[in-house]
Amino acid sequence: MKSFSVSGERGSVSIFCALLLSVIVFSGCEETIVDTVPDTINSTKTFRNGQEGYYGCEDTFVHEAHPATNYSDGTLIHINSGSGTSAYGYLRFDLSYFPSGTKITSANLMLFFSSAAVQSIETSRVLDSFDISTVNYDTRPTSGSVTIADKTDEYRVNLPAAMIQEWVNNPDINNGLEVKMHNSNEVTEAYSSEYATDASYRPMLEINYEE
Questions:
Q1: Contact 14, 7 (CB under 8 A)
Q2: Residue 67 within a domain
Q3: Which of 205, 181, 182, 201 is nearest to 193 (CA)?
Q4: Which range has the worst mean pLDDT, 64-68, 114-118, 124-128, 134-138?
Q5: What is the C-alpha to C-alpha distance for residues 160 and 147, in angstroms, rounded to an integer?
């Protein structure tokens, strides 16, 4: 505090009291700043070829009876179970829409089938990198843990959010999904991302996230 030279004891006391009162009043009027954390916004993003300019879904199938054939240009994904006739579907979605670190809360894969007789399918995380345009039964990749989905009007598979999170944070390990029959001796066909008659039947990935 500055010192003031004032003649007389009373003058010094008066100025000291005035300065003290000013400090008290200023402190009482001081603005209080409170940091606020914005509310989390829960959002949903869907990915399907032809929807909102998205064409990042690749899919194909491989067939045991035709082990050297690639089917990536087909409009249907064959999924069979049975000795000598097994067929597995493969799908991969580009998730570059999300910045790394985006918090994923849940994810669902929707598939639409031309056959109504199928009761359940299995989806597995693909562990190896592979080329959709060249893969066949002999060169098919390995897959990991299984998620089983029961059929309703469509197949809606609840995918592990942690798996999608890993793909968002590190796109290089996104090798997609394998789809196969859960029960033996069943045959069906899912519409692929190339299906043109009705684009709403193409595979769709629905992701819920926070922003």
A1: no
A2: yes
A3: 201
A4: 114-118
A5: 9
How many C-beta neighbours within 10 Å does residue 164 have? 23
Look up residue 197 and give its DSSP letter. Answer: S
Pairing of strands 87-93, 103-111: unpaired
Contact 123, 144 (CB under 8 A): no
Look at residue 28 and tell me if it is in a domain. Answer: no
Q: Is residue 4 part of a domain?
A: no
The pTM (predicted TM-score) of the whole model is 0.79
Residues 6+ apart with CB under 8 A from 196: 75
What's the DSSP call for residue 51?
A: B
Look-up of token digits 């009482």: 28
In a domain, 152, yes or no: yes
The residue that leads in pLDDT, 119 or 113, is 113
Q: Taking phi first (over 0 means left), then psi (-120 to 50 degrees means alpha), and beta for anything else, what does residue 52 get?
A: left
- Return the closest-CA partner of residue 59 out of 67, 68, 49: 49
Give the number of domains in the chain: 1
CA torsion through residues 129, 58, 89, 98, sign: positive
Phi, psi of 161 (to 5 degrees): -60, -35
Q: What angle do CA 50, 54, 56 make, to 5 degrees?
A: 110
Which residues constitute the domain of residue 85?
Answer: 42-210
